[in-house]
Design goal:
single chain; five-stranded antiparallel sheet; eleven-stranded mixed sheet
Length: 330
């Protein structure tokens, strides 16, 4: 038995002794093959980042969750990761943790080993423990600056049954199945295509691993949409990264969720949209089905031919006609 576990158990002993009358006197653990101990990301739900097109967050949050447990009296986890990709920020009990309202006693965090944290908790004295599914703890890891190469690492439990364990109120071990997570990023390589837009000095730029014809961006002034046709091999997963000047298309609010991004007319639930003062950056992935039409809808889009320009053309034509008429009279 490692020192980490022994110290933790001593810490919670006072709590456990107070609950022994509520626990079974048997020291044999009850078989609970269906119990799971899970590491799962909170946001974003997909932790595979495309570092050249998407903005990596400063940190990512994982919930340590237990599923289908009976008479949980205490727990401890040791979580490890690649310190070259991620750095420890914090681990804590969220307000809705499994022992909420039971005055839990915590142990740790122990971060003496880089790329690893040990943390645990026990139900408070005289408390009944926990049955069911819920969050044990929440861990936050900072994302280090990526290099120009793909990389990934598991977010994993270390020392199962020794440094990572679940126990009943009487300290009997609770068997469980661990479910880990991963963090990864990669750089995508596609073909960069520019699209000249009438009335704008700033071209629209698209990058995709599919085929998009240059200058093929279609402006729909009625629906305030710019769209592109992308072709590729059916069944492949494709991506599109579009750089949209705000003098071509924009939204009138500060909420980037106001953008409407579609694939073959179907609204996408979670495109990645960022912006600066002059441009909006839209990234999406989609399955190929031969040719795919991708649309981005805003609140305002550049007119194909502005009314002022039409007035100027008419005025210019009228001036030329008058001049010709005067020349003939002479």
């Amino acid at each position: 038995m490692k020192v980490e576990r022994r110290l933790f158990l001593l810490l919670i002993l006072s709590s456990v002794l107070a609950t022994m009358l509520l626990a079974s006197l048997s020291s044999t653990a009850r078989a609970q093959a269906s119990t799971q101990l899970i590491i799962q990301p909170v946001q974003p739900s997909n932790i595979n980042f495309y570092a050249n097109f998407t903005t990596l967050p400063a940190a990512i949050t994982f919930n340590i969750t237990v599923v289908n447990v009976t008479k949980l009296g205490s727990w401890q986890v040791t979580v490890e990761w690649n310190e070259g990709l991620l750095s420890y920020t914090s681990i804590s009990l969220p307000t809705d943790n499994v022992f909420a309202g039971q005055g839990p006693i915590t142990a740790g965090p122990d971060t003496s080993v880089l790329g690893r944290v040990t943390y645990g908790a026990a139900a408070g004295p005289g408390q009944p423990g926990f049955n069911g599914s819920g969050i044990l703890a929440q861990i936050v890891l900072a994302i280090d600056t990526p290099v120009q190469a793909p990389a990934s690492c598991p977010i994993d439990f270390e020392g199962l049954t020794v440094d990572t364990f679940l126990t009943e109120l009487n300290l009997a071990d609770i068997p469980f199945t661990p479910v880990i997570s991963t963090f990864s990023y990669q750089y995508l390589h596609g073909i960069v295509v520019t699209h000249t837009i009438s009335g704008s000095n700033s071209p629209v730029t698209t990058t995709s691993n599919g085929t998009i014809q240059p200058n093929s961006g279609v402006i729909d002034t009625v629906n305030k949409t710019i769209s592109f046709n992308v072709t590729g091999n059916t069944g492949d997963i494709a991506f599109l990264y579009a750089i949209l000047p705000k003098d071509v298309i924009k939204i009138n609010v500060t909420d980037l969720g106001h953008w409407n991004v579609t694939v073959n007319g179907v609204k996408q639930s979670s495109p990645q949209v960022t912006e600066n003062a002059t441009h909006t950056f839209v990234y999406m992935t989609f399955p190929f089905a031969s040719q795919v039409t991708l649309g981005v809808q805003g609140d305002w889009i550049i007119p194909e031919l502005s009314s002022m320009l039409i007035i100027l053309i008419i005025a210019s034509s009228a001036t030329v006609a008058i001049a010709k008429s005067r020349t003939k009279r002479k």
